[in-house]
Amino acid sequence: MKYNLTYYQHFSDSHNEPQFKLLRAKYGWAGEGKYWALINIIASSDNCLLNISNPLNLGMYAVDLDQSYDEFILFLDFLCSKDCGLLIRVDNYVTTENLQDTFDSVMKHRRVSREGRIKSLLKQTNGTYKLFEMKRK
Length: 137
What we know:
By secondary structure, this protein is an alpha+beta fold. The protein has 4 helices and 5 strands; from the N terminus they run H-E-H-H-E-E-H-E-E.
């Protein structure tokens, strides 16, 4: 079973949020692009948690974002800061609340699929819905 995301949603007007305006004030539009590239890296990581405890990992992420090691550390600190708050730092990992919510939802669906049960809503003729569950063969 996969333990990451290949797809996630974000709001089309996220660029109007105060955190993104602060990000652009400090790093410009390139900073917002680097943020979304970092989010893609986090989504691809196990459990949507990016391990930042290993300097080798940090160096790889810095290169991926076209930053020096020191620039990446400052960028990460800014994203995790109380002022910006676009990332959440938990122990030696970073993530976002949105990625974790999406990951939890996807993992529930994957577990159900793996267990071989199919659940769906079935619209009845009277306009109400019924939960339909069947075992896969």
